[in-house]
Structure formats: structure tokens, C-alpha cells
């Protein structure tokens, strides 16, 4: 390619956000990147989810440098999707930003208007009232559960469904009765396992998981985050177990569960030390 026809880097005098928008437009434009020009909203879905999870991981790690980088990657996804829409004449990034800014003003009358809200709970109640009013008459007869994203992970979806139902008082008062419900669901799962029906086992296991999510919510814990943390903890310990086995000339495939459990306890104690 003749280098004289190549796109130029963005003007450094532009605001940073405009620089990013210029870069994305040029990546998609003539002389841009073949990969970027091939992308669609659908092909970018996986990357969008991945970047969101990486932001969460950076927050959990307390790593500001990584958080800054991952927020940039997530912002790129927003800019990229907006660029795709702009190319089709549907909307632009400015429309996205303008719409969310207006929504925030409308749904915070206790900040930008004359109303008051002394607690976060009161804020959420008002938010939902305004949201229903904005949706018009059709929303009045709609379910409280409408509007939840279809592609949410199952634990997060369960959490949000429960929160929606709780807004009208359909909820346990506190954690103790939910603990009892969890024990009840465990007993029902044991009965299903004894019965041998795969469909019943799946159903009862789902009920148990739903109850555990409910318990987590009442304990002010995000079940999705808690499970991710435990999975990462297991992964780190299992890697340590593999390393310890290699150091001792052991092959996991040839060890019994009891022998592996001895190593597991060693690496578990080592990580506590």
C-alpha cells in the first residue's frame, strides 16, 4: 500500500474521546484494518462481555493501572458499536451520550429538581416510577420483570429477578428463613437424586441455586461475584497442587483422590501462611 494513502493518527489537540472516535472511524474506513472492517454488532458481542468481566476483575484486584486499561477497552466497545450504527445512518455516539445524560437528569429529580430522596432505597423506588411513566400506558400492564437483558449469566439474572420482585414486597424479610429454604431445597434434591429422574434432579438443583442466590442477596453479596471469586481461588490452589505434584515427581492421573487431597491441604495451608 502507498503510505501516502494511509490514514493519519488523530490530532493530539483533540479531546481524548474525540481522538478515540477518530481512530475507530479510520480503522473502519478506507485504508483501515481488514479485521475492524469485518466486524458487526453480532461479532463483537463476545468481546463486549469479556471486556465487562475484565473490568470487574480489575476492580476486585484493586489494580488501578489495570482498571484504567480495562475501562478503556470497554469504552472502545461502546465507540465501536456506535460507529457501526453511524455508518448505517441509525444513530451516532453523540446520540448515545445525549440520551443517557438526559435519562440521568430525568431520573434524579431529587438532584436536578425539587423532589427529595433521603435514602438509596427511596432513589430506586423513584427511578422505577419514572421509568414506568416514561414507557407510557403499555408499561402499566407490563410485568415488573420486563426489560431484563436476555443474555445475563444465570446467577446474575436470578439476582435481578429477585430484586425486581422484592420491590413490591414479594421477598423474605431477612436471611434466616432463606437458610431454612436452602436446607429444604437440599432435602428435595436428595429425594430427586434417590428417584433417579434426570429432569427432577435438574429442576431441584435449579431451585437450590435460586435459593442460594436469594440468600446471597440478603447477605448483600453478589452471587455471581462470589462464585467467580471461589472459582479463581480453586484455580489458583489447583495450579499450586499441580506444581507440588511435579516437584515430587507425582502424576495426578495416577494418584487417588485421597492422595491428591493431602496435597490440596498442603497448598491450602501454604496460601494461608
Largest sheet: none
What is the distance, rounded to the nearest whole angstrom, between the alpha carbons of the first and last residues? 59 Å
Mean pLDDT comes to: 91
Cα radius of gyration in angstroms: 25 Å
Question: Which series of helices and strands comes N to C?
Answer: HHHHHHHHHHHHH
Class per helix and strand makeup? mainly alpha
Q: Share of helix among residues?
A: over 70%
Descriptive report:
- The chain is mostly helical and 273 residues long.
- It has helices at residues 16-28, 34-38, 45-61, 64-87, 93-106, 109-112, 120-135, 137-140, 154-166, 175-195, 198-218, 223-247, 257-272.
- The chain has 13 helices and no strands.
- Helix 1 (16-28) crosses helix 4 (64-87), helix 3 (45-61) runs antiparallel to helix 4 and helix 12 crosses helix 13.
- It is extended and about 65 Å long.
- 8% of the residues are buried.
- The mean pLDDT is 91.
